[in-house]
Structure formats: structure tokens, C-alpha cells
Amino acid sequence: MKKPSHYLIYTGLALAVIAHGAQAQMRIEISGVGSNQMPVAVAGFADEILAPQQISAIIKADLGRSGLFNVIDAGTVNDVNNIDYAGWKAKGADALVVGTVSALADGRYDVRYKLFDTVKASQLSRQDQSVPAQAARLAAHKIADDVFFKLTGVPGAFATRVAYIKQEGSRYKLAVADIDGEGEQTARVSNDPIMSPAWSPDGGKVAYVSFEQKKPVVYVQNLATQARTVVANEKGSNSSPAWAPDGGKLAVSLSMDGHTQIYTVNANGGGLHRVSDGTGASIDTEAQFSADGQSIYFVSDRSGGPQIYRMNADGSDAKRITFGGSYNISPRISPDGTTLAYISQREGNYQLYVMDLATGQETRLSDSTDDLSPSFAPNGKYIIYSTEAAGRKSLMVVSVDGRVKQRLTAQDGDVRQPVWGPFLR
After folding, report:
1. Which position has the higher pLDDT, 75 or 130?
2. Mean pLDDT across the stretch 288-310?
3. Which one of 42, 69, 234, 302 has the lowest number of neighbouring Cβ atoms within 10 Å?
4. Residue 146: pLDDT over 90
5. Closest CA to 68 of 43, 90, 38
6. Signal peptide location in the record (predicted)?
């Protein structure tokens, strides 16, 4: 199979990090809104000036980026125990977020919040958190997650993180940031290429491919201790790590038998086992486990060009899934197992598509021409991917219905190959 730049098989953090202080590294541009936005008033938190971060501003930004809410600035509500429901309803708010911040003697901050339904004149939720200064942003994201969940029935994903590769000149970084692009930190830096990051299910480790040994080798790195384990360093290419849902093993793509096939390997590097049964000179690669661990989606050229297949986790019963277009790669499965995201080349463009696996119905989500590396949010409602425009690589987030889009552009360097982290535990 001919392999242009898009198909280098992707031969292509509790965080203890290489010291590069956390700071804002991304600029976000938002376009589009949901079909039915809910009006939500977010009040300034009483005494939030005491905290290192403005809690209410982060909540407003989170809810606004979702595209599902019309965020109303509510000023400051000092008495959070006596709410004028009719008054807030008259101002057009169906829900109201209020809160307080107080400094504790031990240096932490007490962050309290309440969510009210102004239509039913009732309290929907409350949350109290005592957090150190460095966790103030996280506390705000958790509040936004709770608001999102109480008003939509879907868990919010604002308190999650994204890992991605950043290239600055000849240096490559494995970086981790909040999903809003804030607080970027470097987990690994190298003068040799790093690619294909993959979060462990518990969010404590990341697998990736590094060329530091002058060939592609798969590593697993503990983000708290920075300890690394070589998972796959066989003859030839070692690429495309993907975690099993239980975190005990990974799928990898190895060319040790002369042509690339899919293997599983224990997370500690033992127990290598071939799974795919590609014949002749066919290539099987880019494996992804289903959420229940019973199936593996992968890319193969056994039908002549790269297409997406599904097989049982033991390698049996491989069946082709994609038939639209002659070139489909990078399968990613939604957490509920109902939707396939992938990159399809059509009319010379590489674009993000999703497929309803029950019906086979395809939907194109991107209008760019050079997309790569889709990754679902853990709530299944958004997809992050990388794209290129005017020679600059950036990250995009799109809702699964295609209505809401965000572009995240690095202030320095190119960013690519994003992977959305799991819910924090």
C-alpha cells in the first residue's frame, strides 16, 4: 500500500513534568452554537478576588465554549441563600449559578457553588470544594461540569485534559494541558520525533512512540513519577499504541514479521501476542479497542486501499466497516460504542467523518482539507482533531452534530495528534 504523509501508520497527568511553568499557550476561536441554547446566568462569586483565578470567568468560558448555553452575566450575588427566582426569570435566565470563595488558614480556598432552576424556583445542585491555590482552575472546571450535567443529563468534560505533540523548530514535545488550552506543561521533550500519544484509562500514564533510538519504539510513561517502560522495541517499526479498557495491555502495530500487523502487549512490556491475520503483503495497523474491550477496530489495505475493519479482540471475524470513499484511516470509537470517527480522503481532501454504526450513515464534520488524529471527549459529545491551514497546524474541537467548532492555536510551534484524556477520578 502506498503510504503518503497521512498514512505513516502513525509509525506514526497528576503531573510531574519537565519544568516549563504552566501558562496559557492556546488561543481559542469559537464558531457556531447549538440548535437550542439554554439561557444561564452566571454570577460573580462573592470574594472570588481572593483566589488566584476568577472562578466565575472560567465557568462562563466553559459553558460558552460548549455551544449549548447562552451565558448571561449576572453581576455579583452576595446573598446566595435568598434567590429572587421571578426576578431572574424576568431577566431571561432559566438557570442561575452563584457562589462564594473564602481563604482558609492553611492556604487553601473554600469554593462553594449553587445552581438554581428559575423556572421551577428550586435548587438543582450545590458543591463545596476546599482546594490549594494551584487547583483553583480545576475547581471551576468541576463546577462547570456539574452545571453541564444537571442541565443536560450528560457529564461535562471541562475538567479533563488533552495530550498532544508540539513541534518547535527541531524540538518535539509531548505536552499536556487543560481542555481549554490553559496550563500547558511538558511531559517529554526530545530532538527526535515523538508521536501517537495515548492516555491510559485511569489518566495516570501515556503511551507514545519515540524515535530517540533512531527507530520507532513504543514507551509507556507514568506521568506522576516520569518513569518509563519500553513496551515494544522489536525489529522494524513499533507504532500506534492503543490501550485496552482495563489498562492492563495495549494494542501496537509491529513490522517484525516483514509487514505491519497488530499485536497486543502487556503494559509492562511482556506477553507479546499477534492478533491480526493479514495475509500476503497487506498492512494492518492503527488498532483501537471498543469501550467494552470485546472488539478492535483497525485499518487494513487487504481490500486494495486503506479501509477500516472490526474484528473480535482475539483477531477472529474481521469485517470491513467503511465503504464510502477509497481511503479511510484513524478509527476512533465513541465511549458508548455507537459512533465511529475517522479521517476520509475524498476529492483530494482529508476530512473528519463520523458514522452511525447501527445504520452506516456517514456525516462529514469538518470543512477543512488536511485533518488528522480524531479523539472523542470522554462524554462522547465532542471530538478533538488536528488540522492545517495556511501552513499552520492547530487543533479543532467539534460537537458530534457538527454545529459547534473551536480552533485552538498554539502561540508558538505547531500542534498535532491530540488525544482527549479520560474523566478525572
Report:
1. 130
2. 95
3. 234
4. yes
5. 38
6. none
